[in-house]
Amino acid sequence: MENKTDEIYKKLKAPFPKAAYTKDTSRGFELTSIKAQYIIDRLNTALGLFGWSYSTETISNNEKGVLFKGSLTIKIGDLEKTVFNYGSSINKKVVADTYKSASTDALGKCASMIGVGDAAFKGEVKVDEIEDIIEEKDLPLYIRKAGQGKGTLLKDMTDKDVNSMIAWCETQEKLGGPLLEDYKAIKQYIKTKG
Q: Residue 116's domain is classified under what CATH number?
């Protein structure tokens, strides 16, 4: 039987949707970064709202920029562990943005040490090559935005309605916008359900 730590680690390592990633070329080569709010959401989801804490310590702050040491503490039952890593930012026009950028850089690196977004840090994720994913937990929330069933939850649709929607979408020369999102959601829903 899988222990709780293994179960949480799987949640921490799960892939992110395409919207979570950004392309960073500020260092002269392409890196893939994960937006800080997605990291925070992942920590909250996997560890619980009060299952983790984060703090920073200023290591250096000069005319070039700021360097922070980040400390991420996780709590799983009686287990409490802290990981450390560093984040930096060059000076920006707004001082607060420099600090925020260094802090979130350190948070991302700390979180990667417990599995969050580690594929991006390994260089295995390229923004232009990511196919958007629909997480299983989100499937019941997808609402059809087009067609007669507008406003219907996927889980409440009949198989006939689902198949009819897919067949109609596949006859269209070009899908875009909300209809394309519905089509992707329904295809993913069928794959997960079947």
A: 3.30.390.80
